[in-house]
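Recall the central idea of this unit: under ordinary conditions, the amino acid sequence of a chain determines the structure it adopts. In this exercise we apply that idea directly, starting from the sequence alone.
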Amino acid sequence: MNRRQSSRGRCRVSIAGILLAGFLLASGEEIRPVAIGDSYASGNGAGSYSDTLCMRSNDAASEVAAEFFGVDAINASCNGAWTHHLTEPRMISDMRRDISDPEGFGSAARIASLLAQCGVGMDGAQPDFTIEQTESGFTALCSVTLDPQIQALGDATDVFVTIGGNDLGFVSVASACLIQEDEALCRTAVEDAEERLDGILESERVALVALKEINPDARVHLVPYPRLLEGDLTVGSYDVSGEIEDLQGRWETGLETMADDLNETHGGFYYVGAVTDVWEGHGLAGEEPWIHSDGNIAEILHPTVEGWAATGHAYLVHLGTSILNGHP
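Accordingly, the structure predicted from this sequence is:
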């Protein structure tokens, strides 16, 4: 099958999936989605952020899916999260700011800005904000601890999980292979990631079992990362594209196998393969990239708003086909 025929086949599957999602909506199926994981779950790159610490976006994929069903999503994911942050608290911010002004105390606007930076009012955050007087003026002290992400489940019907990229060393791989373009560093970063993968999958398995103990009835959807690279990228003699494609393929297979195994032992586990399908041709150097390659440094190598919308569409395709067909 050539690429055009394959794309047409995926298009038919997507249309069928959206129609089935529509049947879910029409049938009154309850969908209460929760997103947990890292920046590839929070919506980093989409803009419209509800906070500056986790970069949770109102246009994240979980929000796109929730809007289709006319409900609100809970986004407990966070920029920079590692797998253990699904089940353990995380100190995300610890800052100290001088808030003195010529009149001797910080302005109300400045204090309000600091409160926002401190996570006051942020879901799942436990901020500790104090102001102390010093000889030279006033200082604001703030520390923010996030609850374990799985504590946000509540009565969720569907939990979308995207995690492991930070454990794997994604930043090191991107820095060595895409920014520094150093062959030796790139090769080492990718090989290190390959060695970590099995341990990361096992850590995620443990967290997913703990998740089910909190909400046994939730459907849990394991979401792979989008394929970020298109075409042939080499650094020196090192085939970066080929090695990373193999690594992601192995990771996706591991997630799919995990979903199958956990579905047999606990029930309600699914693998969201539709994400990989919808992203084909949209990585870096693709015909229509959905990845930030410049601009806000915090958003670099994260999906654009178009990429997040497409991922949300993939969620809907997945929900329609998996829930109604009863297939993980």
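The CA atoms of residues 34 and 195 lie 30 Å apart.
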